[in-house]
Design brief:
Layout (H helix, E strand, L loop, with lengths): L4 H9 L3 H5 L5 H10 L4 H27 L5 H25 L15
């Protein structure tokens, strides 16, 4: 198996499609991971982390919806999750480009 850092960086940065277009932040990394996971061990490991992170963001955004009624805590949650969803893909793309092992906090393990 080989290592392709450029594809890793593209996979991490493709999560930003949701912030730019409103969709695609889960679909594009999922397609890249699904098609390349057998060819590159890093794509397999980091692709699982990316998919888990994106699914965790979706679940957490859904949890924030009813919290809006509770003193507006959902709005604060939306703001925090928005910053996290833009900041961590950029940080982890830089880490992947440098050969470091990126990680996503606040992620549930949907895919092992």
């Amino acid at each position: 198996m080989k290592e392709d850092r450029q594809l890793l960086v593209i996979t991490h940065l493709s999560q930003l499609l949701t912030a730019i277009t409103g969709f695609g932040g889960l679909i594009v990394p999922l397609i890249i991971w699904f098609t390349k996971k057998d060819e590159d061990y890093q794509i397999d490991e980091q692709g699982k982390e990316i998919i888990n992170f994106q699914l965790s963001l979706i679940v957490n955004f859904i949890i924030c919806i009813p919290l809006i009624l509770l003193f507006g805590l959902g709005l604060l949650g939306f703001a925090i999750l928005g910053v996290i969803s833009v900041l961590f893909p950029i940080i982890n793309a830089i880490k992947a480009n440098n050969g470091e092992n990126p990680s996503y906090p606040f992620s549930y393990n949907f895919i092992n």
